[in-house]
Amino acid sequence: MPSSRSRVVRLQAGRRINLTTYFDRRRRQVDRALEQYLAGGDRGNDLFAAMRYALFPGGKRLRPVLAVAATEAVGGTIAAVLPFACALEMIHAYSLVHDDLPAMDDDDTRRGRSSCHVKFGEATAILAGDGLLTDAFTIMADAAARRGADARCAAQVMGEIARAAGAHGMVGGQVADMTAEQHAVDLPTVELIHIRKTGALIRAAVRSGALIAGAGAGQLRRLTRYADCIGLAFQVADDILDAEGSAAATGKRVGRDRERQKATFPAVIGLQASRERARELRTRALRELRDFDRRADALREIAHFIVSRACPADVGKG
Ligand code: GRG
Question: Which atom of ligand 1 approaches the CA of 177 most closely?
Answer without folding.
Answer: 8
